[in-house]
Amino acid sequence: MAAAEAAEAALGRQQEQQEEEEENHDHEHEGGGEPAALNGVVVSEKVKSNNLDVKIPKSELETEEKGAEEEHPRECDSNILDVSSDYPRDKHISIQRHLADLEKLADLREDEKKPCPLCPEEKFKACYSHKLHRHLQNLHWKVSVEFEGYRMCICHLSCRPVKPNLVGDQTLAKMGAHYHCIICSATIIRRTDMIGHINRHVNKGETESRFITVRAPKSSYEVVKESATDVQVLPNHSTPQKTDSYFNPKMKLNRQLIFCALAVLAGERKPIECLDAFGATGIMGLQWAKHLRSSVKVTINDCNENSVTMIKENCHLNKMKVKLNIKEEDETVGDGEENSDTIEVTKMDANVIMHLRSFDFIHLDPFGTSVNYLDSAFRNVRNLGIVSLTSTDISSLYAKAQHVALRHYGCNIVRTEYYKELAARTVIAAVTRAAARCNKGIEVLLAVALEHFVLVVVRVLRGPTPADDSAKKVRYLIHCQWCEERVFQKEGNMVEENPYQQLPCDCHGSMPGKTAVLLGPLWSGALFNTGFLRRMLLEAVQYGLDEAQPLLKTLVCEAECTTLKHFSTHSPGDENKQEECGVYIKTPNTSAESYLVHGKRKSEEMLRSVAKRQRAEHSAEHPPFYYNIHRHSIKGMNMPKLNKFLNYLSEAGYRVSRTHFDPMGVRTNAPLAQFKTVLMKYSTPTYVGAQAEGPVHLPGEIQMGEEVPAAAEIKVEEAELAEDGNSRITVAMFTQSYPTHCSAD
């Protein structure tokens, strides 16, 4: 009897609660509010109110009421935990795996009327199980959107819209039937829009880790090893801004170049404080600490809490000590005594930490442009320190989005044959202006522009005088759009009447309209420091960085503007040297002290002569920009091999080298007219049956050491070559394919 009385009392309280909920529901329909917060509750109360004749123990009723109270705050966001709990996070009730799971929500029974869990009462009234089954199958299940085994069924509840900026979203007043995205919880009106929305997630590689704060289980982590360093990453680690553990294997070369630059700086002074401002997984800072050990004090920073947690775990994975900040004590793994290296991990904005502390080496690698962090980087960097930055906004730097380049870098650029070097000079110009604002100058040590990134490494020189000298090297470039000739604008503030006179070509005189465009401001100085690159190459050989060694050899040749066969890493005065991996490495006996002759005055004179000879070798800067041999090839002719063409230009008395910016590019101080002339001379016709192989001899021998006239003045009279029919045909073809206005093919 007591149990029956308790059950009747509980049922009475339920009826009172139901009446109060219905009053609140009517009140919110009249005055606004959050209808989504009541829909789920009303449905659950109705499900319980349909069982009034069933005697339920008091303990079960109390448990059911507690469950309803715990469920209420989740329903306020229209995200209700589903029956199928194998999905990694809570999702809306309209997202189910099977139709049976959707029917379980309705609690179908043959002898009772049940409401639809996805429709309001005014749209679909409670009915028996057979009718409700057809309703769920035809109206909700058949028009669902499938994704990875889940069905996003159409929902008619008054859910609040999420992310109203997406396509298909509307305001709350117009919200009707809609879908809930399983990935980002967005509400989409149309089914076609929902399919396109999911496809965009799939194409971008987006997963739930972008939208939830709960970290993924450790079983879903992947361990990636690079340069004897292990890091844990998530399965979607290759998608930037969509994951907390972004790791790009294609940037391995970038990390090796930065490591070599830091190793060179560590050899100059010890210990140095270095900062990885955007740690992500912490792979770069871990490599610094693991290989350079006590020579560096590494600080890895990231503003994302999950990334900071992962950096700590990766430090423990590599048996490193973790120092949270300066005031807190160290967190050390059990066997951390084997390695005394300590890595400081911080969680703050990159601008904040660079404003608060001073560093000797700073690396910036944000997603996209790094111009937002340049002022902070140069504020507290120490004198003769190094700042390296990696820019991945190649769409704007490579002139695909010119308006973005103008907005970010304040630079006007167009697509040219030397667009990669143009991108590097654009970034250096922005770095120069940022350093000058802090009364600092720069010395460019390295500038690399490859397919995925633009890397710039500069040395900081404190003082207003170096700042002024660096600022003067930021100049405009005059570029001929017809023949691709280019020249930096002369220094000075006076306006010239005809700026076309600065161009070596005469396209403006022979072609109508304006033929040139003003690009910039750009960095007009050198892009490489030969001595620093040679030391980087030695560090790459020492640490076995195989991918960086070929590129560094190319950079040394490019900095000296010489071919690879004349390349060596030892100076002419080095006598004691050893060879390793095909590269000559200096031994400790090859320092300046080895040239001292004790007890004689000739020692100082010998040192001065050696230094003078070395300065003479490295005084000449490499010529700016390069020419693409395919861009200036002659139609109907087979151009010579690139290495042979380099030898031809070198024999003509010009400095020449290949460039890493373009595999078919030639960096030379030869003018474009001379470049085309040599290319024309050593090209052969495509039909080789009528003429023997070998270089084409133009009428009137042109001396390579003398000044060659422009290509527009190269004309041949056919009457002079009447004796040789084959030569007449060949020269006539040259005249047709090489018009007098210096046009490119």
Automatic annotation (TrEMBL):
Cited InterPro entries: SAM-dependent_MTases_sf (IPR029063), Trm1 (IPR002905), tRNA_met_Trm1_C (IPR042296), Znf_C2H2_type (IPR013087)
One of the record's GO cellular component terms: nucleolus
Residue ranges occupied by any C2H2-type domain in the UniProt entry: 181-201
Record's compositionally biased regions (Basic and acidic residues): 55-77
Reactions performed catalytically: guanosine(27) in tRNA(Tyr) + 2 S-adenosyl-L-methionine = N(2)-dimethylguanosine(27) in tRNA(Tyr) + 2 S-adenosyl-L-homocysteine + 2 H(+)
GO biological process, one term: tRNA N2-guanine methylation
Cellular compartments annotated: Nucleus, Nucleolus
Residues covered by region (Disordered): 1-81
Any one GO molecular-function label of the UniProt entry: zinc ion binding
One Pfam family it belongs to: TRM
Keywords: Isopeptide bond, Metal-binding, Methyltransferase, Nucleus, Phosphoprotein, RNA-binding, S-adenosyl-L-methionine, Transferase, tRNA processing, tRNA-binding, Ubl conjugation, Zinc, Zinc-finger
Bias-annotated ranges (Low complexity): 1-15
Family per similarity comment: Belongs to the class I-like SAM-binding methyltransferase superfamily. Trm1 family.
Protein name according to UniProt: tRNA (guanine(27)-N(2))-dimethyltransferase
